[in-house]
Amino acid sequence: MLPFKLVYSEKYFLPIGEHIFRADKFRLIRERLLQQGVAEDADFVVPQTATEADVLLVHSPLYVKKLMEGSLSAREELEMEIPYSPQVVDAFMLHTGGSILAAEHALEDSVCINMGGGFHHAFPEHGEGFCMINDFAVAIRALQKRGKILRAMTVDCDVHQGNGTAVIFGSPRPKPNTLPSGPAATSGARQRTTMTEGSSNDVFTISLHQENNYPFIKPPSSIDVNLPDGCGDAEYLAWLDNALSSGLRQFEPQLICYVAGADPYMDDQLGGLSLSIAGLKQRDELVFRVARARDIPVMVTYAGGYANHIEDTVTIHSNTVVAAAEVYRTASSRTSR
Ligand SMILES: [Zn+2]
To answer: From ligand 1's centre to the CA of 215, what distance in Å?
Structure first.
């Protein structure tokens, strides 16, 4: 039995037909975890669909109306890059309910994994890049509204920049601050910190991503780490460590939303970084160890993963559960208080 819950529904499947986004991966991850004895049936909890009121905490009434009525324009549908149907909307609403449930469980158990979600390219007024509803942004706003948290941090490790999230929690006054002395300053990676000086921002956003990749316009996160093509394990992990330390020096979150994209993988069809499967597991461990040492609850979403072999995507996502089990099972807890 795991020391935390896994949020999953068989209705996470997105009926989008033949697509590079393999919507059957959610089921395959669950099967893998059960087959390998990492998890058992009792570890899984089934989410309820998010309410329209919760979604409206992030998305505009007009956009939500279009989703519910099926009145997106052809251009809006094209931008989403997945076919519209009421069933697809239902699935996104369920992934969003899953992120809300995962955030609630994380506050109780220190960590919780939503085995879906991570739709970070969804903006308040439109969707794009396979993302219709920004599930974890909704989860943050829902928990704030219910008085469960005041401040949250997003740590987005998908290979693509979290543009929707940056806009949802952003509009900071830009104050670029390049840190040239970082661990990989000589190899081309750049970290840009945009301080939210004087603003009332209660959500701090971190994104580590490949610079030369979608989205080509990258609205500023609180910290953006623009990684060079081909960036490998050691360099990536050093930058992640650097970004987490820097973020946690500036901001004290009561919840971390970790977007554990599988697409920084070296054999991903939509990514140009070169992380190994072992390196991606170390990435997960690093996030969990840092959060645990500071007693900050973590909710996890899965996000992208388009490996040439679906088994690799499944392994990478399954390893996030293994990494959490290893970190949160160890006895040396509560080091920071
Ligand atoms: Zn991605």
So the answer is: 10
Paired tokens of 237: 């992990």
Average pLDDT over residues 30-44: 97
Task: Give the tens place of pLDDT for each residue, 58-69.
Answer: 999 999 999 999
| Structure tokens that stand for 251 in this block | 């901001």
Q: For residues 208 and 286, what is the distance between their CA atoms, to the nearest angstrom?
A: 14
Provide the number of structural domains found in the chain. 1
Q: Which domain holds residue 245?
A: 5-329
- 335 is a domain residue: no
CA of 207 to the centre of ligand 1 (A): 11
The answer to whether residue 334 is domain-embedded is no
* Residue (of 191, 166, 323) closest to 245 by Cα position: 191
Residue 104 Cα, ligand 1 centroid: separation in angstroms? 25
In a domain, 226, yes or no: yes
User: What region does 334 belong to: left with phi over 0, alpha with psi -120 to 50, or beta?
Assistant: left
* Confidence class for position 191, pLDDT limits 50, 70, 90: confident
CB within 5 A of ion ligand 1: which residues? 158, 160, 261, 263, 304
**pLDDT band per the 50, 70, 90 thresholds, residue 175:** very low
In 3D space, the residue among 179, 101, 110 whose CA is nearest the CA of residue 135 turns out to be 101
Q: What CATH number should be reported for the domain holding residue 235?
A: 3.40.800.20
Q: What are 193-250's pLDDT values in tens digits? A: 654 443 448 999 999 999 999 999 999 999 999 999 999 999 999 999 999 999 999 9
Do the domain assignments include residue 336? Answer: no
pTM for this prediction? 0.92
Distance 42 CA to ligand 1 centre (A): 30
Please give the distance, rounded to the nearest whole angstrom, from the Cα atom of residue 9 to the centre of ligand 1.
22
Question: How far apart are the CA of 96 and the centre of ligand 1, in A?
Answer: 18
* Residue 263 Cα to ligand 1 middle (Å): 6
